[in-house]
């Protein structure tokens, strides 16, 4: 009998293409769109931040070094150690190392060396965000200005002003390089220059870090879970609307006349919602696994969080049904799907990671079903253990129990015309 | 005398208004009882209370002299209800609907399978049983609506306006089905309707209900005997005449005058020689009398006599 009530619910929902579209297709579409649209900002390795740099080196660094050492030998003795330090300070090599030597930088900086006669063509082509032209005798003049005397030579840098972001980043990088180089110069002039001194690398953070020193969360991971936990909430309003339809069409009366207790009926709403919510999440996660390469390494903990979230959704369906039945209107489920889900989604971080906005929103979000589940899923993606998510498990359990109690209290015990 | 279902002083009050007002009725095994009344008379509320779906403000419903107000299960076990609305899942087929409602009645699998076939045959949907209900005509839905209530072979069947909004052919099919069901299985039926002819065709006893109160009850003949000293005359005129109707209304020998287009119905005392007077009035207003018919009073006439209003407005 209980089984019949659940099978009926599954059949009805499976024959409702519009609802299935909202519950299954919409989240997949949104995960795709948001991952692509907001991924560059969240992931920090976007095409938007790609830097194509051309370096035109008109001087021969080795020959220039040779020339400088000859000149320097005339005014001061240069032993092997000092020669080694000077070799470490070749400005063009250092600059190229800084641009390409860092793994993080390699993700968005591409450096291409061009011949001296290609400068004009490169400037016209518009293929480069930055062109660095190293003039003849640059290395010799630069080293002379540092260790001997004379004016400091300049690099010719051409920036694409149509790309303000990349131009600004390049300026910052060159400024940083200049500062580091000046520091080295200072150290050398203070006779403290030593072979162990190296130019610090520029560190660029590109991923969102929600747990220190743990696996980063890409936009695909974030939106897979944030959209899934948001769209599971629609299951509650969908089932509550279908349940109200049963009252509106006097089917509920027929169910009562078959000597089904109202609480048994409410129980069937809860169990079928839990089942449907679990099926919905399984489908969404399976699609995400194959489409977005999302991995579920701690399978048991994912099942636990999904089950608890599904229980909360089942309790929500029961509560909305109880209010609908009491008011003899589908208003509660309509308001829930039209407004409350959006609020929960915002507070729970389904659109943006609100935990980064304020600690209050972060705490509040953990007491929304979607927010608590989202945080748990993201922590699991970062290889968290049960201990790391036990507070979220507690929140979900409390939400489920609380909503269930209210629903059982509110649900009317008789049917009939109002 | 022991009545199987007895309703005692049943009253339902909403916002200080008695929508059902001290209704008393009974139904014995095997009989068909009609609840006749206009829309809004309180029939559906009375039915909802009798079937234990809403709690009465006052009064009681007894099954074998035991109250069912706090023991709904005892009545629900032997009761089938056909609601006025189509209480079916439109996204399921007829067979799936029957299977679902049979399952929640805890019918054994084999018995349910057998009953589904019998019911589909009784309601004439055996060839269309795999169609989704949403693709059915109004008449087919009404038939399935009845079929669901018959599935568990109830001893008592309550039918609340089961023929509303369907074509005459489907209506006749339903009336025949109800009649056969009663004759074959001895199921007792409470049949509510505002169609006088349906109640006259089906019911052994009738309760006429208006504004929540039972205003007449008894067998067809007993109720009609309320107008036993009168007869109903139906006149067919050449054309409608307001003035003629006004003059007829002023005549103290005539009562219950209802005019519709060129047809007029009225009641007169049985021994009245009414014809010369009517011919004279027709002559005065230059309206030819095409025909006239003398009829025994109908339930419609009784309702008109008791309430001053027609049964169907």
Automatic annotation (TrEMBL), chain A:
Lipid bilayer topology: Multi-pass membrane protein
Major subcellular location class: membrane
Domain of life: Bacteria
Transmembrane residue ranges: 20-42, 221-245, 265-287, 299-323, 335-354, 392-411
Subcellular location: Cell membrane
Residue stretches making up the ABC-2 type transporter transmembrane domain: 22-407
GO MF term set: ABC-type transporter activity
Matches recorded under InterPro entries: ABC-2_transporter_component, ABC2_TM
Keyword line: Cell membrane, Membrane, Transmembrane, Transmembrane helix
Protein name as it appears in the record: ABC-2 type transporter transmembrane domain-containing protein
């Amino acid at each position: 009998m209980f089984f019949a009530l659940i099978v009926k619910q599954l059949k009805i929902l499976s024959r409702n293409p519009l609802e299935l579209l909202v519950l299954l297709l919409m989240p997949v579409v949104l995960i795709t769109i948001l991952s692509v649209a907001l991924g560059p900002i969240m992931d920090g390795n976007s095409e938007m931040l790609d830097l194509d740099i051309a370096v035109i080196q008109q001087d021969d660094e080795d020959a220039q070094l040779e020339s400088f050492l000859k000149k320097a030998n005339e005014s001061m003795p240069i032993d092997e150690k000092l020669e080694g330090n000077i070799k470490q300070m070749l400005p063009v090599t250092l600059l190229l190392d800084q641009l390409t030597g860092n793994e993080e930088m390699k993700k968005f900086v591409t450096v291409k060396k061009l011949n001296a006669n290609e400068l004009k063509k490169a400037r016209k082509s518009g293929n480069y965000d930055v062109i660095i032209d190293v003039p003849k005798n640059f290395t010799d003049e630069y080293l002379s200005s540092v260790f001997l005397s004379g004016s400091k030579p300049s690099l010719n840098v051409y920036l694409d002003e149509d790309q303000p972001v990349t131009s600004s980043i390049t300026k910052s990088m060159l400024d940083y390089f200049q500062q580091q180089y000046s520091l080295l110069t200072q150290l050398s002039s203070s006779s403290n220059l030593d072979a162990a001194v190296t130019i610090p690398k520029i560190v660029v953070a590109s991923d969102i870090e929600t747990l220190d020193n743990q696996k980063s969360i890409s936009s695909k991971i974030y939106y897979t879970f944030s959209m899934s936990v948001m769209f599971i909430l629609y299951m509650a309003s969908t089932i509550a609307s279908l349940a109200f339809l049963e009252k509106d069409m006097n089917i509920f009366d027929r169910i009562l006349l078959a000597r089904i207790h109202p609480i048994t009926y409410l129980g069937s709403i809860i169990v079928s919602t839990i089942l449907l919510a679990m099926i919905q999440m399984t489908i969404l996660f399976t699609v995400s696994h194959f489409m977005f390469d999302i991995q579920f390494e701690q399978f048991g903990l994912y099942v636990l969080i999904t089950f608890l979230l599904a229980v909360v959704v089942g309790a929500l369906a029961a509560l909305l049904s109880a209010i609908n039945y009491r008011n003899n209107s589908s208003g509660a489920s309509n308001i829930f799907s039209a407004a409350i889900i959006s609020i929960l989604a915002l507070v729970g971080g389904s659109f943006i990671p609100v935990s980064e906005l304020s600690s209050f929103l972060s705490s509040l979000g953990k007491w929304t079903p979607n927010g608590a589940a989202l945080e748990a899923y993201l922590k699991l993606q970062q290889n968290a253990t049960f201990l790391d998510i036990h507070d979220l498990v507690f929140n979900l359990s409390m939400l489920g129990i609380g909503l269930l109690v209210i629903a059982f209290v509110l649900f009317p015990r008789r049917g009939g015309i109002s | 005398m022991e009545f199987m279902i007895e309703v005692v002083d049943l009253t339902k009050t909403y916002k200080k208004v008695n929508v059902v007002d001290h209704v008393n009725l009974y139904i014995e095994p095997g009989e068909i009882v009609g609840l006749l009344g206009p829309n809004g008379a309180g029939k559906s509320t009375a039915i909802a209370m009798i079937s234990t779906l809403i709690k009465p403000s006052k009064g009681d419903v007894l099954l074998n002299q035991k109250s069912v107000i706090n023991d709904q299960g005892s009545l629900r076990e032997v009761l089938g209800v056909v609601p006025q609305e189509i209480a079916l899942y439109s996204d399921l087929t007829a067979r799936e609907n029957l299977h679902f409602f049979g399952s929640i009645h805890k019918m054994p699998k084999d018995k349910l399978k057998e009953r589904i076939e019998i019911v589909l045959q009784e309601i004439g949907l055996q060839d269309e049983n795999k169609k989704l209900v949403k693709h059915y005509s109004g008449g087919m839905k009404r038939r399935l609506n009845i079929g669901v209530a018959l599935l568990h072979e109830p001893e008592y069947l309550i039918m609340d306006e089961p023929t509303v909004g369907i074509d005459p052919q489907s209506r006749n099919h339903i009336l025949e089905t109800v009649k056969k069901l009663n004759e074959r299985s001895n199921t007792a039926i409470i049949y509510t309707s505002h169609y006088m002819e349906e109640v006259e065709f089906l019911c052994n006893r009738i309760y006429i209900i208006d504004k929540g109160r039972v205003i007449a009850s008894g067998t067809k003949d007993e109720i009609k005997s309320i107008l036993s000293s009168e007869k109903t005359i139906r006149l067919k005129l050449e054309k409608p005449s307001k003035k003629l109707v006004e003059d007829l209304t002023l005549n103290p020998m005539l009562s219950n005058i209802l005019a519709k287009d060129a047809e007029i119905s009225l009641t007169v005392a049985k021994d009245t020689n009414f014809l010369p007077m009517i011919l004279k009035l027709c002559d005065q207003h230059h309206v030819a009398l095409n025909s006239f018919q003398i009829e025994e009073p109908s339930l419609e006439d009784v309702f008109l006599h008791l309430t001053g209003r027609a049964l169907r407005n």
